[in-house]
Amino acid sequence: MPDLDLLEAAEAKLEQADAPATPTASAGPSGPRSFSMPSSQQTPAERMPRGEVTYHNLTQLYPHAPVPLYEGEMVLHNSTLLDLTGCGALMDWVADGHGCIVEMKRMMKRKTEFNQAISMLSQFVEGDVQGQIIRITDTRLLLLPQGCRGIKGTEMESFAVSPDDLTDVY
Predict the structure, then answer these.
(1) 88 CB contacts (<8 Å, ≥6 apart)?
(2) What is the pLDDT of residue 119?
């Protein structure tokens, strides 16, 4: 933040240099002291040159972007649940066969709303869709759709279960 006293002193020196040397009749101040601020200048400040890379908010540009899905693949969404209104989008993603990593730290402070969100998600994901909810950390959940299974641990994970345990057999 600029030092306003230094700016004021510099402005006073500039005014003294620009003013003609005429004696003043009164020794008192002629009015309130002022200094100029960059925002009060009439000429607009020069803008920074544009960079070579343009960044876009893809969620805003393409809210429902077509994401191609091939056999055996799924989309994994990363989201933050702020309140109960976000549960609908999470349930839509799981119903479409997508996975979701959900950050719930902000909602955990509100116990009643948090418990209701967990109840809604659990009833839908594990009950209706036959998916799975996995706690990744203290504040994050992984919602998996039907046909996906999580396994515990990473040591020897390829040998921990058979491939038939990872998919639903009909």
Answers:
(1) none
(2) 92
Alpha carbon distance, N-terminus to C-terminus of the chain: 68
Please check the confidence at residue 33 and state whether its pLDDT lies above 60: yes
**For residue 99, what are the domain limits?**
73-151+160-166
Q: Which residues does residue 80 pair with via DSSP β-bridges, in sequence order?
A: 103
State yes or no: pLDDT of 166 exceeds 60: no
**DSSP three-state, residue 2:** coil
And the tokens for 120?
């809604």
The CATH number assigned to the domain holding 127 equals 3.30.110.150
Q: Taking the complete model, does pTM exceed 0.90, yes or no?
A: no
- Between strands 99-103 and 76-80, the pairing is parallel
> Model confidence at 170, in pLDDT bands (50, 70, 90)?
very low
- What does the alpha-carbon distance between residue 161 and residue 167 come to, in Å, rounded to a whole number? 11
Nearest-angstrom CA–CA distance, 161 and 17:
86
For the CA atoms of 104, 157, 77, 170, the dihedral, rounded to the nearest 10 degrees, stands at -110
Number of domains in the chain: 1
| Domain-located, residue 101 | yes
Query: Mapping DSSP to helix (H, G, I), strand (E, B) and coil, where does residue 99 land?
Result: strand
Phi/psi for 61 (5° steps) reads -70, -40
